[in-house]
From TrEMBL:
EC number assigned by the record: 5.1.3.1
Descriptive protein name: Ribulose-phosphate 3-epimerase
GO biological process: pentose catabolic process; pentose-phosphate shunt
Pathway assignment: Carbohydrate degradation
Pfam families, per the entry: Ribul_P_3_epim
Known catalytic reactions: D-ribulose 5-phosphate = D-xylulose 5-phosphate
Length: 215
């Protein structure tokens, strides 16, 4: 599956860019919320997510790069999030956070920084619908892909199979048509792409290009 990241959209033409995703072969809208504390950047908050939700026709895949995300679980449920991903590194009581996300009727997501070992999910994997594996350090679009990600994908896939979980593996950061095939072959189920889609001459075709390779 392909999830274009609206972080790379033109915020002056947000409705147009959300509708471009609606009219493309993309599967999810990927929505990056950053607080300037967990990551060294601030992206956008609830009013912008509300505006995206107003026009979006595909599932909303919300990636929270914020400290203490428990404070906002109900808020993002009310805004219409389909998947809510919290960072492993930002959750002291991850199991409790996952139950709270489920209780609000959303799919559970856990994002892992590049330095975070996948084995730390061994005891929660059956409660996780999507692992958002960061293939760059979170905070900015347009960074280069970290090659160690392939080993992490294979290890996570093995953990999911060993535990009999049905978790999807989502790769976030530096995804292009050049690495999409190798990511899929390593075991990725969902590819997030920001700059590759929005910096292209024809975003709908770039989404289709990724879809043809790895969708
Ligand atoms: C980075 C965000 C990503 C970002 C990806 O912290 O989580 O979703 O938008 O952008 P690209 O595809 O440009 O690396
Ligand atoms: Zn993201």
């Amino acid at each position: 599956m392909i999830a274009p990241s609206l972080l790379a959209a033109d915020f002056g033409n947000l409705q147009r860019d959300v509708e471009m995703i609606n009219n493309s072969n993309a599967d999810w809208h990927h929505i990056d919320v950053m607080d300037g504390v967990f990551v060294p950047n601030i992206s956008y908050g609830m009013p912008v997510v509300k505006a995206i939700a107003k026009y979006a026709t595909k599932p909303l895949d919300v990636h929270l790069m914020i400290v203490d995300p428990d404070r906002y679980i109900k808020t993002f449920a009310a805004l219409g999030a389909t998947n809510l991903s919290v960072h492993y590194e930002a959750c002291t009581h991850l199991h409790r956070t996952l139950q709270a996300i489920k209780a609000e009727g959303m799919k559970t997501g856990v994002a892992l920084n590049p330095h975070t070992n996948i084995m730390l999910l061994e005891d929660t994997i059956k409660d996780i619908d999507v692992v958002c594996m960061m293939s760059v350090n979170p905070g900015f679009g347009g960074q280069s892909f970290i090659e160690n990600t392939y080993d992490k994908i294979r290890a996570l896939k093995a953990l999911i199979e060993r535990k009999g979980a049905s978790t999807l593996i989502e790769i976030d950061g530096g995804v292009t048509a050049t690495n999409a095939k190798a990511l899929k072959d390593a075991g990725a189920d969902v590819l997030v792409a920001g700059s590759f889609v929005f910096n292209s001459e024809n975003p709908v075709e770039s989404i289709q290009e990724l879809k043809d390779i790895a969708g």
